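Box 4.2: Ligand-aware structure prediction
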Amino acid sequence: MLTNVEPLRKILELERKKGYLDSAVIGGLDRFLRRWAGQTIESITNPQLLNRFHKLHLLNPVYASWTKQQREQWIDSVLDFLAEAERRGTEKGKTKLSAVASRPSSKVRGQTTVVSKSIDSPITVVRGISSSLATKFNRLGVKTVRDLLYFFPRRHLDYSQVKSISQLSEGEEQTIIANVWQAQVTMLGGRRSTEAIVGDETGNVRAVWFNNPYLAKQLATNKQVVLSGRVSLFKERHVFESPEWELLEATELIHTGRLVPLYPLTQGLRPRQVRKLMKEVIDQWTWQIEDFLPPELKERCNLLELPQAITQSHYPEDEAVKDRARVRLAFDELLLLQLGVLNKKRDWQESQPGNSFGTETAVLDTFLKSLPFELTAAQQRVLRELLADLQQSRPMSRLLQGEVGSGKTVVATAALLTAAANGYQGAFMAPTEILAEQHFSTVCGLLSRVSPQEDRDYLRSYPGLLPRPLNVALLIGDINQARKQELHRCISDGGVDIVIGTHALIQKGVEFHRLGLVVIDEQHRFGVVQRSALRQKGFNPHVLVMTATPIPRTLALTLYGDLDLSVIDQLPPGRQVIRTKWLKPAQRESAYSFIRRQVADSRQAFIICPLIEESEVIEAKAAVAEYEHLSREVFPDMHLGLLHGRMSAVEKNEVMHRFRSGELDILVSTPVVEVGIDVPNATVMLVESADRFGLSQLHQFRGRVGRGQEQSYCMLLAEHPSEVGRERLDIIEKIQDGFELAEEDLKLRGPGEFFGTRQSGLPDLRMAKLSDVGLLELARSEAIRLFEIDPGLEKPEHRLLAKELVRVWPEAGEWS
Ligand code: ADP
Ligand code: MG
């Protein structure tokens, strides 16, 4: 008797008896089958048996997804197969299948292979992978057998449309199964090539392979061959041009007649070779993959088993299963990402206690009552969220999103004031010095309504709010050394309550006396790494990150899942729609005369120069040239200013100041103007080469106007927009809402570019698309659930998941 056959037969018989309900084994038949097949396949050497074995799909079973009738038929054929295997075994006593029986036990064999050849072994343990082949795979980032299993095809060719020769039609990808009548080497286009005539019961067709004479020999007369590819018409007859081919005798089709994988290649790797190898690796190793998701979760989320998902991602049975396989693998990525991020958040929140602030209602009321406007409902809600966080001794870690002009700065100022009222210092950081200065003047402007300020340039003092005067400082690189030292001293002895500056504030050895709250503006330039640096400054301050880049909520939670999220989703009353128009090159003149008319009406305009990626120097030069051209030829009678990244902060500041005060009519600028600049009298934004900017960036530019009461306009010029460029321009013309735009941007740009996961230090997403909002939400809610029931993933059913998490986030412990 064959020990390996018997357990399977028993189980299948039991399954039959129980009415094909997939209830014969715990965990489902598929899992059992895979394991059984994985342990058995190596021992089958008889080609016919092996062929039947493959046709039964024992290695990648989908029993669970079948109807009762399909199950019944399939079990019958497996039982037939087992009987046949056994019969051969006893007859000849020699097939390897029976040899399994003569070993002490298959379990022992299984264990020894696992020890010496685990899926984490280098790929050279795979039969057929030499060290030179391994080097080529290494170049693609594939080092271990596991990497190979996760080395997914870029896409699949759909060769599943099998036709008879008479049904062939021109142009489509199709497959035929035919008999080789004749194959020979011929000269085609001056090169030795192969030409074959093949036929089925409906007719004959010619196939040619250019520049490939070697094939002729393999296509021996009367062999059954499968051809997949496009058919063209030559002298009014159909011909296959360089189709994929394979002989039907192979155990399972891998190049033709199905969804055929196209793998990423590198020099020295050929498509057919990689496909063949991958098929073998999948057949022989996938069963060793441990499915780390708890079964109960898989069931709830209707996910495929992991080994099945891997198999089906490479050699899918059909599009539907392929999709489900991708969903499963994408879910894994998102779940692990979420768990990692949540873990970090907990780590740093629990490692050191933060400082709990009391809500100083009187101080806040005085401040809010002094404002010339009332907070919008959204601002009030967000402020409440912030105050609730600040009361906790667990440090706040919150992302505040709000459209340009939604009034984030006021809310942040209220939070900074709360810190000061509690005797702590606050830092307010901007991405550039211009913006730092602007924040300084905005914050001072807001505070000065309580008490007129005593005007010292970089350090201002406001009595009337706290029992002592409130001191606000601007610290940027551009002030003289003596002043800087004075400021440093005031910061370190606690004389300053609120410090506004660039990121240099936390990076360049500024010593704080009692840093209690950090506000970071424009988060997309301030990544995970900087956030961590901040927390290591010792005080474990509350952190508020602000962004005007609207990130869809789920995406924000996924990539910035270590932050809680607040959204100001409402603009102050009276904001107008900015009329946006994409202009054809011929309309340039009318754009200029429109600007002229606006300026005549005492309005101001921005003109944004093209984005030049090569270097800031070249970009600055181009901007200077454009500025000169516009000043001389186009607007000789107006006052123009220039702003670019190579100017010193003093120069930039001076230009900004002149523009803000109305002395300049038109500001010509490189894209540096993108973020945060607030000049309410500016009503026109003209963007050159607008097709080269992303949607979010265009939206940012547009947000520079429409900040006052006047109707504002955004004009977009593009010389030769690409297809994507056109699409973007179309979208920005139509859509005003930043969140809607962000969704569109995501669709256009895909996950990698939107927020560069690599940049932000998060693990790569290969299968997951950030546009899979439903899946993102599912993964997040499952991660939270897991975290609630078993935060350390210590329960036995979570053991594998914990192991996987450590594999994906090796630095998990030290990340915070
Ligand atoms: P953000 O930083 O979100 O782009 P700001 O905080 O700079 O927006 O606010 C934009 C403008 O709107 C500022 O001039 C500010 O004074 C004003 N503002 C803020 N909140 C309100 C409000 N509730 N009502 C009216 N104007 C407001
Ligand atoms: Mg702002």
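In the box above, the bound molecule is magnesium ion. Residues 93-115, 751-760, 812-816 have pLDDT under 50 and may be disordered.
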